[in-house]
Write a structure and sequence with these properties.
The complex is a heterodimer. By secondary structure, chain A is of the alpha/beta class. Chain A has nine helices and 20 strands. Helix content of chain A is 22%, strand content 37%. The longest helix of chain A has 19 residues. Classes of the chains: A alpha/beta, B alpha/beta. Chains A and B meet through helix 7 and helix 8 of A and helix 2, strand 7, helix 3 and strand 8 of B. Bound molecules: adenosine-5'-diphosphate (ADP) and magnesium ion. Adenosine-5'-diphosphate binds next to strand 2 and helix 1 of chain B.
Chain lengths: 472, 251
């Protein structure tokens, strides 16, 4: 489709203008691979616009209804003047994780800490800095794992991303502490953040990464994140995504993962709150013996929307994939789950399983769940299943007959329903935090203001922070 | 009087199932309720325990001096009414231990008591498991999940023993049990039996009543109690069946 003869929506126009105006700055300071991608991304965006409902993969999505909204696209880098923990304290923290943060789209740290190398040679920091220090890694991987021309969002991300996180784990290194990235938006005006992450795991290495998206106030926002992950032979990667953003914020999270031989991937996505969330996970099993275990829990209410799109590509024989997504949808919330499994012609001995279970708490809550299986090999074990149901009234009465109040009984049942997923979180303190957040969310106690250290009496009051005017 | 049911009419979806039932139970008594399938025995149990959609269209259920027609099921439970379900429900993901602790603490909170100390709770669990002879492994599992029919029934008696109700209704707890399991259930009841509580035992079979000796036997038919007597009535029913009572009733 060529977009040129149609009229752009406001958001499309702003994205295109933004690139045209800032092209020199955007491409000039980048590694050539990155600048080339930016230009290609821009061309794609200009030709195709953002995905509309005619696009099969967006036909039930509420995102296309939102392109007339206005967002700031470019705010100057945030000056580091206080630790991120002074602005926001994540529910999930502890000795087992090293925490890094991004604020309003910028990597948030002191100047010296923009890119650090630990004793083991593990590199963690801003992607802007990393592209110049590790050009060979960018040449090999940047834009090669993701399909940056998948749709207008991946293209816009590539053209316009401001910053993001880079992690490199050398061969044989097992990173002991989890790396936690807390991404915050804290601004009084609506902001769209395009951020880009690149994570590279060497042979037989190991990394646990927690990717937390949080809001600090109730200002509308749009987060468009693209993450590329390369897993070399026999590496292990655990990815936890925790999403707790305000009801006015939209989040698109595209994650592309390339798995080499015998690599082991484990994903657990916890969508606790957010106006509209779309998680796209693309797992390419490119080496024999690779294993992907993809899990998710979502809790939505009011008029929130959650969309999980999982693509598993069994390109070679003897790989294993497993998907388990469970959600509770309350009030007028809506959800989509699409599980795509592709098994190539010679990908024999593939095991691919998929399950999606939902509880609808009200007649107005909806879920649209669908498997898409394309199987070209013949020696394959593949199964899929989806359920949509209500809380079990029989169980509810049984519990109440034992003296448990209705609300507690409902909570216990919902929690028990989700526990199948949360019990798979292997880091015990993380699992306890996960479960605790779910319990509080189910009780309606978890508000984004809980975690703000300012404890202001007016929950909507924005938090002040300084912008370094000298950098404008 | 612990339980006094007066002229109880209950409808499900507008269909009248109980049609003017009277029953009074005093502390220290065991009442057996017998009767053919489909006459409303489980409906009676559901009405006493406050199940949703069982509409009381007429009459009263008075428990411990208080009309409970509109009381929520959890409040009734916390006031001491317990039902051993004819079909115990499986609750995947909720462990027996967690379930039991939540129930006991709900009851304690209701009575103005602190949550049960962990040690005391575990000790009580052990004691009651022995009483009803259930395997330790079962209490580690999810409630009733993967339990055999007999294990489910024993689990009901186990919960009863843990919660120490004032009024326990056993709805066909004996169905499908072999004689050993039956004895275990009876032992549970007899152990708990006191001058302070009462049991309503719904059963099809005289054989349970060999082990739990009732003070009164009632026959239910078509939504009413049509005949009451002493334990001798159960023997009579065993011999002659229900038809002679039904024939009398239908005339
Ligand atoms: N949920 C229900 N909806 C409609 N009818 C019901 C329901 N439960 C029971 N009944 C009817 O009520 C009558 C009594 O049932 P029940 O109390 O289970 O009898 P019993 O326990 O004596 O075998 C039966 O005719 C049965 O079909
Ligand atoms: Mg019955």
């Amino acid at each position: 489709m060529q977009k040129s003869d149609t009229i752009y929506k406001l958001l499309e126009t702003s994205l295109i203008n933004e690139f045209e105006q800032k092209q020199v700055a955007l491409t000039g300071s980048c590694h050539p691979v990155v600048s080339r991608s930016r230009i290609n991304g821009f061309e794609f965006l200009k030709d195709n616009g953002l995905p509309d409902r005619k696009n099969e993969k967006w036909k039930n999505s509420p995102f296309p209804g939102q392109y007339e909204e206005e967002y700031l696209l470019d705010i100057p880098p945030v000056f580091y003047d206080k630790a991120a923990e002074e602005i926001f304290r994540c529910e999930i923290h502890g000795f087992w994780a090293d925490t890094y943060s991004m604020l309003n789209g910028w990597y948030y740290s002191t100047k010296e800490n923009q890119l650090i190398t630990t004793g083991d040679g593990v590199v963690v920091g801003s992607i802007l800095k990393a592209q110049h220090q590790y050009p060979e890694l960018f040449e090999k991987h940047f834009g090669n794992i993701a399909n940056t021309e998948q749709d207008g969002f991946t293209a816009a991300n590539t053209a316009l991303f401001k910053d993001g996180m880079f992690i490199y784990v050398p061969d044989g290194v097992e990173v002991k502490n989890a790396v936690q990235l807390i991404k915050l938006i804290n601004l009084q005006e609506p902001l769209m953040v395009n951020s880009r992450n690149l994570i590279i795991l060497g042979k037989s290495s190991r990394l646990t990464f927690l990717h937390c998206d949080d809001s600090v106030n109730h200002t509308p926002g749009f987060i468009n994140t693209l993450t590329e992950v390369y897993m070399d032979e026999n590496s292990s990667f655990e990815l936890y995504k925790l999403q707790n953003i305000n009801d006015n914020t939209s989040l698109i999270n595209n994650t592309f993962i390339h798995q080499e031989r015998d690599s082991r991937l484990k994903v657990n996505i916890l969508s606790l709150n957010g106006g509209k969330i779309r998680n796209e996970l693309h797992v390419n099993l490119m080496g024999q013996g690779a294993d992907a275990d993809i899990n998710g829990v979502y809790l939505v209410d009011k008029q929130q929307h959650i969309d999980n799109q999982v693509y598993i590509n069994h390109a070679v024989p003897n790989c294993h994939s497993n998907e388990l997504f469970k959600g509770v949808l309350d009030e007028e919330a809506s959800g989509i789950f699409n599980g795509y499994i592709y098994v190539a012609r010679d990908a024999q001995k593939t095991n691919a399983f998929q399950r999606n279970n939902n509880i609808l708490m009200t007649p107005k809550a909806t879920i649209d769940t669908m498997p898409f299986l394309e199987i070209y090999a013949d020696d394959v074990k593949c199964s899929h299943g989806a359920t949509v149901g209500q809380l079990d009234d029989e169980a509810l009465f049984y519990m109440m007959q034992r003296g448990i109040g209705r609300e507690d009984a409902r909570l216990l049942l919902m929690f028990a329903f989700l526990a199948e997923v949360t019990s798979k979180v292997s880091i015990e303190p993380l699992r306890i935090s996960y479960e605790d957040m779910i319990k509080r969310r189910l009780r309606g106690e978890l508000s984004i203001c809980d975690k703000c250290v300012l404890h202001c009496s007016e929950p909507d009051k924005p938090i002040e922070f300084d912008i370094d005017l000298s950098k404008i | 009087m612990l339980l006094n049911i007066k002229n109880l009419h209950v409808a499900i979806n507008g269909k009248e199932i109980l049609k003017g039932l009277n029953l009074s139970v005093n502390k220290g008594e065991v009442h057996a309720i017998m009767g053919p399938n489909g006459t409303g025995k489980s409906t009676l149990a559901a009405a006493i325990t406050g199940r949703e959609n069982y509409d009381i269209t007429k009459g009263e259920i008075i428990y411990d001096g208080e009309t409970i027609n509109d009381m929520a099921p959890d409040i009734r439970a916390n006031k001491g009414i317990f039902l051993s379900f004819q079909y115990p429900v499986e609750i995947p993901g909720v462990s027996m231990t967690n379930f039991m602790r939540t129930a006991i603490n709900a009851q304690r909170e209701f009575n103005g008591l602190e949550a049960i100390p962990a040690g005391e709770f575990l000790k009580k669990m052990e004691e009651m498991k022995k009483l009803v002879d259930i395997n330790t492994k079962l209490t580690k599992r999810s409630v009733n999940e993967g339990f055999s029919g007999g294990e489910k029934k024993k689990n009901e008696i186990f919960q009863m023993a843990m919660l120490e109700p004032k009024l326990a209704i056993l709805d066909e707890t004996d169905s499908g049990l072999d004689i050993d399991a039956l004895k275990v259930v009876a032992r549970g009841v007899n152990e708990l039996r006191s001058t302070d509580n009462a049991f309503v035992v719904i059963t099809h079979y005289q054989r349970l009543l060999d082990y739990i000796v009732p003070d009164f036997v009632h026959v239910m038919y078509d939504g009413r109690i049509v005949k009451s007597g002493g334990k001798g009535l159960a023997f009579e029913l065993e011999e002659k069946g229900y038809d002679w009572i039904i024939d009398q009733e239908d005339e």
